[in-house]
Every structure is written in C-alpha cells, then in structure tokens.
Design a protein that fits this description.
The structure holds two protein chains of two kinds. By secondary structure, chain A is of the alpha/beta class. Helix content of chain A is 32%, strand content 25%. The radius of gyration of chain A is 17 Å and the shape is globular. Chain B is an alpha+beta fold.
C-alpha cells in the first residue's frame, strides 16, 4: 500500500474526469480475485430458516467492476457482505486472492478486511465522533500497520481531496450532508488501496446528482487496480459495470457482460 | 402485560438482565427490614422466656427477705436466682446459673434438646459444651449435661443452668428478678428504691445498678438500636444505589425505543398514548422484577438479621417478614420506575421527529460547543480521541457511570473502614491497661480486703462497678493513686491525689457532656449519689470515671474493701475467700477476635450487597452504552479493527471515568465512615475515632481495574458475537 496515495489521482474531485477515466473494457488481467463455490448463507433453522444466498458460484476478476442487482430480498446485499467478509457463509467456499476467507476466525477476518477490502455502506457508518479526516485515517491505522501519523494524515487528506472534500477534513459527520458523508465513506474505503472494494447500495441514500458523483468515484477506483463490486437497484448504474450479476431468491439468475463501467 | 411479554420475546437477554438488576435493587432495599426483623424476634423471646422488669445483683438474700420484697407495693413477682463464675474442665470461662426450674416464672430456659435438670449435679449447657449425657467439669465439680438451651438474658454468652440448690446452698442467692404490675420506667425505679430500702433493714445492699427493662424492652435493645442504626445507614446507602440502578435501567428501557417511537409518531401515534405505552413497559418490567426482588429482599434481611443476632446477641431469630418494607419497596420501585419512565418518555416523544427517525447513535455529535471543542483537542491517537469524545458525547452516561463506580468503591471502602474503626476502638479500650489477669468477686459487692493484693507480686486490688453520670451508664474504677496497672494517658489536668474526692473522666465523654477539669461531677452509684471534682481527662476511648479506690469504697458503703485484683500473672496465687472469676488477657484477646470476626462477617455481608448493587449498576450503564454504540463498534470491525482494539477502546473510555470514580468513591467512603462514626460517638458520648482501611485501597483499586477489564471483555465479546453485517443492518 502507498498511504500517501502518490500514484493515485490527486486534486479535488472532478467527476467528469473520473467518468472519462472509468474503464470502458473488461480488465485485461483475467485472473480471478474473488471465487465463490456453492456459497450459501442461511439464518435460523428448520421452518424458521431464512435463505440469504444459496449455492452461488461466482468468479470476479482483478480490476473488474461488477454490479449486483436484483429485487429486494434477492440476496444481493448478503452476497456483498459475504464477499466483503463482514458475514460468514453457512456453507460453501469464498476465496479472495487465493485465501480461503470463509475459514478465517473473527480477528483474522478483521485483519484481512483492514488490508484487503474497502467497504462502502449505504448508511455510511462513519464514526460520529471523528472528523472526516480522522474517519479516513482510521482505515489506514487499522489496515496499514506501522504507518506514521504524519504520513497517515497526508494520505487521508489526499483521499478526501480525491473525493472533492479537501475543505471538509475537520468537519464531523453530523456537520455534513448525506452525499458528503458518503464521499468520506468512499475515501475511507479507498485510502488503503485495497484490491477489493465492496459497495452496498452506495447511492441508495443520495439524490441523483450526489448518487452519480459517488458512482463515478467508485468506478474510477477500478482504474487504480481495485476490483469493485457494487450492489444497486439502479439498472442504469449497473449497465455501466463490466458485468452485471442478477440475483433472484438468493441465487444468481444471470450474469450479463455490460458495456463497461 | 402483553406488551411486556412482546418486549421479552424481542430482547430476552436485555429484559432478563434488566429484571435481575431491578430485582437486586429491590432486594437491597430489603436491608432496611433488618431492624424490624430483629426486634420482632427479640420481643417474641421476651414473652417466651418471661424476662423480668428489674434485674439486680444483691448480697446473699434469705427466704424471708424475698418474701418481704414480694409484699412491696407494685411488685407482681420477685424471684431469687444465683450465679457463679466457673471455669470448665477445658478451661472455658463461663457462669453457672442457679434457677428454680419448678416454680420460676422468669428466665425460663428454652431447650433445644434434652430436658431440664432435676438433680444438683445436672446442667443445661450450650450445644458445643458436650452431648447430652456427657459429663462436664465446672470449677472442678462434675455435672451431667441433660439438656441444651439458653435464656434471653444470658443469650450473649455460653452459660450453664443448674438447679438453684446447687449454688444457693454454697453462698446464698445473689440475684433478684422482679416483674411489676406497672412496667413504666418511673414505676420500676420507685419499686427498686423500695427494694433497696427493704434490703438495707437487713444489712444487705444492691451490689450493682439494677437493670430496668420498662415497657417490654430487652437488655440488648441498646445494642440492637446501635446495630440497627448502622444497618439503617448502610440500608439507605444501598437503597440510594438501588434507586440509581432502577433509574438507569428504566431510562435505558425507554431510550432504546427512540426510533421505534419515532416511527409510530410518523404513522400518527398520539404522543400521550405513546408515553403511556412506554410507561407501561417500564412498569411491567419493574413488576416482573418485584416478583424476584421482594423475596430476595426478605432473604437478604433475614440472613443478615440472623448473622447480627447470632453473633452479637446469641439468639437465632425465626424467619420474619416486614410487610411494611415490602409494601414500601414495591410501591417505591413501581412509582420510581413510573416517574423515571415518564421523564424519559417525555424526552423521547419530544425529540424532533426527523432527528429521531434519522438518528441511530443517540444525539448527533458536533451540535454543541462542547462536542466541537472536544473534536478540536487532539488527545492521543485516534482511539484515544474516540474514547474521549464518546465520553463527551454522552455526558449523562459518563456521569452516571462515574457515580456508580464511586458508589461501589465508596461502599467497598466504607465497610472495611467501619470495621477497622470499630476494631481499633475495641482494642483501644484496653490500651491504658496492663495486666495478664483480672480476678473479680463472684458476687457484685466489695468482698475483698483492700490489702488482699499487698503481698501478691505484680498484683493490685481495686474497685470496678457501674455508675451513672448525667443518665449515661459509666464504668467506675477505684484505683490506687499510684496504680501501675492503668496509665491514664491524660489529655488535660492531673491524676488523682490520695484520699481526695477527685475524679478523672474519659476525655470524649467529658467533652460531650460539657464537663471540664475543675468542674464538679455527680456520680450515681449503687449505694447512692456521690460528688467529685474533675481533676483530669483520660484519652481512654471509654465512658469511664477513675476515683481513688479508698474514696470509692467508702462511697459504696464498704470502706477498706475492693472487688477486683489486677495482676501481671495469668492467675494470682491468693486465697480470695470467696468465689471468683478470673479473666485473662488471652480470654480478652479471644473475645476481641470473635468480635472482630463477627464485625467483619456482618459488615462484609452488607458491603457485598451494596457493592454488588453498585457494580450491577455500572454493568447496566455499560450495557446501555454498548447498545447505543453497537453500530459504531461493528463499523470499526468492518474496517479492520480486531477485538483487542475494541477492548482497548472500551478500556480507554472506562479508565479515566474509573479513576475519577475510584478517587471520588474513596473520598465518599472516608466521609461516610466519618459520618457514621460521628453519629455513633454522639449517641454513645464517647470518642471512637476513625481508622481508614488504607490497606484495602490497593485491593479496591486492583479489584476495580480487574472488574473493568472483565467488563470490557464481556462488552466486546457481546458486541462481536453477531456477524458485523447483522449488527450494521440492524442500524439501517
């Protein structure tokens, strides 16, 4: 990781630049970053059992932007949570970058998430008592062992600059709008340059303009080598991904190769 | 009820924890029932045993004198008894009480096993003295144990009961017990004066102050009152902590429904109905807690009352229930819960709807100047800042936890401080004295010649009797003015001069009665009042008067006589010419140790309850904190925080709060100890002094730190039990 973000794009957020910079073709590497086999998540037992996802086989390549769509209750958020390592499968396997994530213990999983996954939540989940910059710094502290305070601070500033919030570094979440908070969430997810970014309906709580801006930043991450999985209801946004995974009743109904993010 | 059950199904763990917390709170209030439970037991014992109204030691009485006393106006029944100090074969110092088992109406022995003695060589003993049928030596004479039992009067020590012929034949009866038709104090004192006059005509006297038990009181009422005062104070403390627990738990139950209520408001729910619903939930849960808490309180009060009465009085109380305390506890808990719930519900329902619907982490951070100021202070690393700001974010919670920790620590410090103060006071009572044995005449008069100890090396004769100054019972010592057994440790004035009507008083007692050096003082003795000039004050932690022994013996009507011999030998070799009892320093040490153990046991039991309730209150508050912040902790986990980091965060938050709480608690405990001791000093007119249990501080601090670490472990374990996504989704 390069916490100072030196090889990333710098400067204030330029959505049009990011949009044009977004990948227009499937990733060239073709190597799998995420592989699931018969991935199943069930809550409860017997008659009360509730199926989240069932028997999902999926492969996501490095640098790929994948949209997961489906109606409410189809299991798309569950699939996203499993891939991000914030939920554990009932059965099946989940391999990310050659590592069996499903077999990890709680603390191993936390370490792994800190180093390998950036997560963007629909509800932001920023820590309310930390400023924007501190929220971003926290991801570096947890994911990047041994990074000095000064370096961490400048990396956080740079990430905020990238999402257009350079002037909001010292603001608390309660002092920002929803769109701004979501952009802080994205800065937090990308600041460690994780190989995998999972965004669960990142635009769901935002208006159209803010939604588009956030989406553009996310897809722009693929350019820096990250693999982006985003869950959405918005078919227009989904069509901008390299591939679209459509889910129904906890299973993958179809995988469509899109026109590029 | 249905809504309460629904709440239970929704969050059984939290509801069970709340119910248990409230139950313990109600149970702790049960401590207040201890005095009543004790008193009811004692009064039952008075009726059962037939306790006399006047009890007095006398010179040996004849049957004629007894008959004459029975004819005195106002006397219902007067009976004679005999007592003798004896030492058993295994060296236990005890008393042999001679009773007329066939005719007596007072001091009836209550048997727990066996039968009453029928022959002079049979006794009723305490159970550990031996099994029924065993032989027992008393002053070298063999007795057979035919029963186990006791009477209320002698319940605080182990004694043997034998037929009165076994003793009266030796030196005559020497104890008079009287019941009166009118048992008011005035009537009893008047009858007592008549008895004294009657005895005087035959050349006999009272040898001690009579004990008056007016209006059905018991000889240990004063002790029970003191213990009750202490327990009452601790009970109030426990009750206050319990109220904090009750309030915080009830408040939590309401506040955690903020969002649910907001949704109902958004759907058109009327605020008044919503408030009523919230109040009903709180009252329902409190009612459920009462079902457990009230029996718990009854058990607490009975257990502690049993400990107190068995250890201090030697009476095993029956199981008793104080319905008043139960009713008040129930009413207090329900109305308290309702009050707190009403306040919390008003707050929840008044919150701006949009904010209540949006807000998932309590009130937003950053809206007040304190929040903004805290966010500008770069304290420590990111986790340090998180910890500090979380405390600032929830000031009410932070203050509550600090108070609860202070209460727990305060109780934990107050209890051993009280115990060590009382123990130090007990030890200090012997500090001015230096002797290995004290030999006293069996009968309370002054049967020894003053010269009895002249030829005994290391021995000194003196007088030790009861007296009264300004209605306070005092120990009166008649000592040689050149005494070597007593060091007066004078704080003012000088020691006694030979033959002068001078007195040295206990400093604390004198001060509390506005008596100073140079003042005259009237000392009421068994033989009547006597006046002295105060020449000195002694730092003796007692309520005592020291007078020249010759002067005192004259005032007692037996000049040139004494009733006690102090010696630096374990047993002075002398022919006392009468039955004596010898108390050794070892006996005193054993008594002192037993008293210390009893104090530690009783104070410890109360302390555990108080500290337990306070600790539970802390846990309850921390559970609230966890509930409010579970999404924050889950978010931290989502971005890579291991459980160790979360534990560190919780500890960082708790430690400063705990530090303030511990310091505050120690101060609170020290102040509380001083308050309680001061009240005892005032009610007993003596200097007790405070000895802070400084040695317990490292244990209290260590225990607090360990408890907090354990709490952090439990909190983080509980917070990370569910998958991160489940917790986070619950936030949405």
């Amino acid at each position: 990781m390069s916490p100072d973000g030196s090889h990333r794009q710098h400067g204030g957020m330029n959505t049009s630049a990011l949009l044009t910079a977004a990948p227009t073709a499937p990733p060239s590497s073709g190597t799998a970053l995420v592989e699931t086999h018969d991935l199943t998540r069930i809550w409860g037992k017997g008659d009360a059992a509730q199926i989240g996802v069932s028997g999902v086989d999926l492969r996501i390549d490095r640098g790929e932007v994948v949209a997961v769509i489906g109606p409410s209750g189809s299991g798309k958020s569950t699939l996203g949570a499993l891939i991000a390592g914030i939920d554990r499968p009932t059965s099946g396997s989940l391999v990310v970058d050659g590592t069996r994530v499903d077999r990890m213990k709680v603390d191993q999983l936390a370490d792994w998430r800190g180093r390998n996954v950036g997560i963007v939540f629909q509800d932001f989940h920023l820590l309310p008592t930390l400023t924007a910059a501190e929220n971003v710094e926290l991801a570096i502290e947890l994911g990047g062992a041994g990074v000095g305070r000064r370096l961490r601070r400048s990396a956080a500033r740079a990430a905020l600059e990238r999402v257009g919030l350079g002037g909001h570094a010292r603001k608390l979440p309660a002092q920002m709008s929803g769109g701004e908070q979501q952009r802080v969430g994205i800065a937090r997810a990308m600041v460690t340059q994780p190989p995998l970014v999972v965004a669960d309906e990142p635009t769901g709580a935002l208006d159209q303009a803010n939604g588009h801006a956030v989406f553009e930043i996310l897809t722009g991450l693929a350019q820096t080598g990250s693999t982006v999985v985003f869950i959405t209801h918005d078919l227009t946004l989904a069509s901008a991904a390299h591939r679209t995974v459509s889910m129904i009743d906890g299973s993958v109904a179809s995988v469509t190769v899109g026109g590029g993010a | 009820m249905r809504s309460t059950l629904r709440q239970f199904r929704r969050a059984p763990g939290r509801i069970v924890a709340s119910v248990l917390a409230l139950a313990l709170a109600v149970g702790a209030i049960g401590v207040l029932a201890i005095p009543t439970v004790s008193e009811s037991t004692l009064h039952e014992a008075v009726d059962r045993d037939g306790l006399a109204d006047i009890i007095v030691d006398t010179t040996p009485l004849s049957a004629e004198q007894l008959a004459e006393i029975n004819r005195i106006e106002g006397v219902a029944v007067a009976e004679a008894e005999a007592t003798e100090a004896v030492r058993t074969g295994n060296g236990v110092l005890t008393r042999l009480i001679g009773l007329d088992f066939e005719t007596q109406t007072m001091d009836r022995v209550q048997l727990s096993a066996g039968r009453l003695p029928e022959r002079p060589d049979e006794v009723v003993a305490w159970p550990s003295a031996g099994a029924l049928g065993d032989d027992l030596l008393a002053n070298g004479l063999p007795y057979e144990i035919v029963g186990h039992g006791s009477t209320l009067w002698w319940s605080d020590i182990d004694v043997l009961y034998a037929p009165i012929d076994a003793l009266a034949g030796d030196a005559g009866t020497n104890r008079l017990v009287v019941t009166a038709f009118d048992d008011s104090e005035e009537s009893l004192r008047s009858i007592s004066d008549d008895i004294r006059a009657t005895l005087a005509t035959g050349g006999d006297t009272y040898t001690t102050f009579p004990t008056y038990l007016p209006d059905g009181s018991t000889p240990i009422d004063e002790d029970i009152d003191q213990i009750s005062t202490l327990i009452g104070l601790l009970g109030v403390f426990a009750g206050l902590v319990a109220l904090v627990l009750l309030a915080s738990t009830t408040n939590t139950l309401i506040v955690e429904r903020t969002r649910e209520v907001a949704v109902m408001r958004a759907l058109g729910g009327h605020p008044r109905r919503l408030r009523r619903r919230l109040r009903r939930i709180a009252v329902g849960i409190t009612a459920a807690a009462l079902v457990i808490g009230l029996p718990l309180g009854v058990v607490f009060s009975n257990l502690i009352a049993r400990m107190v009465l068995e250890e201090f009085v030697g009476v095993t109380p029956d199981f008793a229930v104080n319905w008043t305390v139960i009713a008040l506890s129930a009413a207090g808990a329900l109305s308290g819960a309702r009050l707190v719930a009403a306040r919390a519900a008003r707050k929840v329902v008044k919150l701006p709807l949009a904010e209540a619907l949006r807000d998932r982490e309590g009130s937003p951070f950053g809206r007040t100047w304190t929040h903004r100021f805290a966010s500008r202070v770069p304290t420590g690393g990111l986790f340090g800042r998180l910890a500090t700001r979380s405390s600032v974010h929830r000031p009410g919670h932070t203050v509550a936890v600090t108070i609860q920790i202070a209460a727990a620590v305060g109780a934990a410090f107050l209890i051993p401080s009280l115990a060590s103060s009382v123990n130090a006071f007990n030890s200090a009572a012997y500090e001015p004295w230096s002797w290995e044995s004290l030999t006293q005449a069996r009968e309370p008069g002054l049967p020894f010649e003053a010269s009895i100890a002249d030829d005994l090396p290391g021995a000194e004769a003196g007088v030790w009797v009861d007296g009264e100054i300004a209605d306070w019972d005092v120990d009166v010592y008649g000592l040689a003015t050149d005494t070597s057994v007593f060091d007066p440790m004078l704080t003012a004035g000088s020691w006694l001069e030979p033959g002068a009507r001078q007195a040295v008083l206990s400093d604390g007692f004198a001060g509390r009665n506005d008596l100073e050096v140079g003042d005259p003082v009237t000392l009421v003795l068994a033989a009547g009042p006597a006046s002295y000039e105060i020449v000195g004050l002694s730092d003796d932690s007692a309520r005592a008067v020291y007078v020249d022994r010759e002067v005192l013996a004259s005032d007692l009507g037996t000049p040139g006589h004494t009733n006690a011999v102090w010696s630096d030998q374990v047993a002075p070799a002398a022919d006392f010419g009468t039955a004596v009892r010898t108390t050794t320093a070892v006996d005193l040490a054993a008594e002192e140790e037993a008293a210390r153990e009893a104090i530690v046991l009783i104070f410890g039991a109360i302390g555990v309850i108080v500290a337990g309730v306070a600790a539970l209150a802390v846990m309850s508050s921390m559970t609230v904190s966890l509930f409010e912040r579970r999404h924050e902790l889950a978010a931290l986990q989502a971005i890579g925080a291991r459980r160790r980091r979360l534990r560190g965060l919780i500890l960082r938050e708790l430690l400063p709060v705990a530090m303030i709480g511990v310091i505050g608690g120690l101060l609170l405990g020290a102040l509380g100890t001083r308050g309680i001791i001061a009240s005892f000093e005032a009610s007993n007119a003596i200097d007790i002094g405070v000895v802070d249990a400084v040695g317990s501080i490292p244990m209290i601090v260590g225990g607090s730190v360990l408890a907090l670490v354990a709490l952090a472990l439990v909190i983080v374990r509980s917070a990370t039990r569910r998958p991160v996504t489940v917790t986070l989704r619950g936030a949405a």
